[in-house]
Task: structure prediction
Amino acid sequence: MSESTTKEPLSLEGLQASGSLRTGRKHVLSILVENKSGVLTRIAGLFARRGFNIDTLTVGPTDDERISRVTLTVDGALHPIDQVTKQLHKLINVLKIRDLEPGDTVTRELALFKVSADGAQRGELMQITEIFRGKVVDVTKRSVIVEVTGTTEKIEAFEGMVRPFGLIEMMRTGEIAISRGRSET
Amino acid sequence: MRAVDAVMECLKAEGVDVVFGLPGGANLPTYDAFVTGGIRHILVRHEAGGGHAAQGYAKATGKVGVAFATSGPGATNLITPICDAMMDSVPVVFITGQVRTELLGTDGFQEADTLGITIPIVKHSFMIQDAKEIPRAIHEAFYIARSGRPGPVLVDIPMDLSRDEIEYEPVTDVRLPGYQPTTEGNQKQIRQAAKALAAAQRPVIYAGGGVVNANASEELVEFATSDRFPVTCTLMGLGAFPAPHPQWLGMPGMHGTRAANYAMDEADLICAVGARFDDRVTGKLSEFAPHAKFIHIDVDPAEISKNIPAHIPIVGDAKHVLAKLVIEYRALGVDPARLGAWWERIEGWREKYPLGYEDSTDDEIKPQYMIQALYEATKGEAIVTSDVGQHQMWAAQYYDFPAPRRWINSGGLGTMGFGLPAAMGAAVGCPDRLVCCVAGDGSVQMNAQELATCAQNKIPIKVFIMDNGFLGMVRQWQELFWDGKYSHVDTGEFPDFVKLAEAYGATGMRFTNKQTLVDDMKRAIETEGPVVVDVRVTPEENTYPMIPAGHAAREMVG
Result:
């Protein structure tokens, strides 16, 4: 939309609609909320009621004890992301929302994999773990627990590599994210 | 002082002059505080009646309504009023009792997770965890309820905390870092909107309840008459633009006028002010106003582009934005003559499709005539409340509201049983005005118990029951869309409303003759105290015109 301050007339045909657009990509929303009971229920309830689906969700403290940070990821192919953020903004306890730009953001996720591995397979599994800069945190005669940190893509790639060994179970934290550069997220 | 005495002080500081409520175990301390608290309390007969009364009070006066209930069932009985207030943006503070903190989570007697149950239907809520928080929570509740887009706020107070001794100091600095409504409107966007209006050949102003909430009726009239803009107001906005008026098209939507619907259908620019493109207005969304660009002015940013993508979004309240828009528009010096062709088209629809019905040729009272008679008997000056259904639509169609806050109904939630207690609240808030409730014979029974409250407190509401012996709107849909197979819509002649009124201590009347109806209604209005009138109308009359659900405006029938 052009914004002119002169008396130049405007053509209705030239007006473009904004909002309600699906971006088609994953969005990482970094949300500062007041550290009060029930805040997470309000956020989760809002998503459920409006038919928005949360892909991952993490909550943790910030350097200010009165404030917590919620990091959640939403699929922008399924939901108009501006509606999601506007509805979140309506919650009184939500202080700030940032829809982080993928290129300007560092995201990390922690995952724990419990994999079947007897003596013969263990060596190969250790090699893969090495390549992914993972850590073996527990070993028994028949299984190994590996800790991997990284982007969602890396975690998923590691999962693909170890699945053939026999993946007993997997725990993932969901992503946390921080913006690059000097400014605050 | 006790925390509950501080609650009374907070209410007085907020200018509360009346509270609707019902005591119970968990709010006994609060009710002890009412004895000397200096706040008028009206004892209702069901918490839902109290909640709707607080809504009626708020809608009629523009002030925040207040309703009290105890824990558990008291609080759950408030669910419908809370949800109704959320849907229609009504400022009400609900204060509920809760079981003692040591019992929380133990399924104690009359324990319900009131906060959890109400989260999806409140603007905000507070669970008190320390008695010292109470005064601030109450003041924040009032601030949140009345500001921005108004809505319901709940404060849940455990019984033990309400008895605690606290130091009370008036709270004057409400600061909510996560809540800063934008009211002014962006000047560049407003200028852009003015230019778009100047460029439009077929503009329509589509105004809603936001204009009423912002007390922006005068600004709306000034804006509309700064050119010859045609105006339509939603069900929630009726009265925001005075009807009748040369630029008034009537209500849009499912049971709106053809002039309003066809004008939206052919418009090249729709300027929405405090309206939210509800499905009852748009019909089939993909075919709504196919040629139009949209200016959307709303104090709630989440409404903009929610249903219809806006071309010129303006976040701000109607009062501020319209005042600025008028100035910008006038500065452009647009020639009103350019709308001549558009008005010719609109006048054509008005002449060809006026609202109408086939009147009876004998004494039978057609429901549409009943509303016209009420308009005549009240000279159009009453506050009118209603429930939901046929009677609501006929009242909206045939009672021309000359001013805002005269039409009080349940629009968004569509609550049966809203009208009678809402009338009670409106009458308490506006004791000098005539307050009439137009109810259905089905819906009035859902909160008829409040007639006792009206009789006891001499609240002189006049209830006109449009009695057709059916759940009329459901019957109409079964007739039109379900092959005429009636399923459980026949309510018969039960109860005898005259006897019911008398049993409650109100005056009961029954009118059956069209010829004397206006005079009969005047007699009912002149009768002191609460009056219930059973008006027998044509049993199987349908509400027309109508856009069948999911269809486009062009497909209007009847």
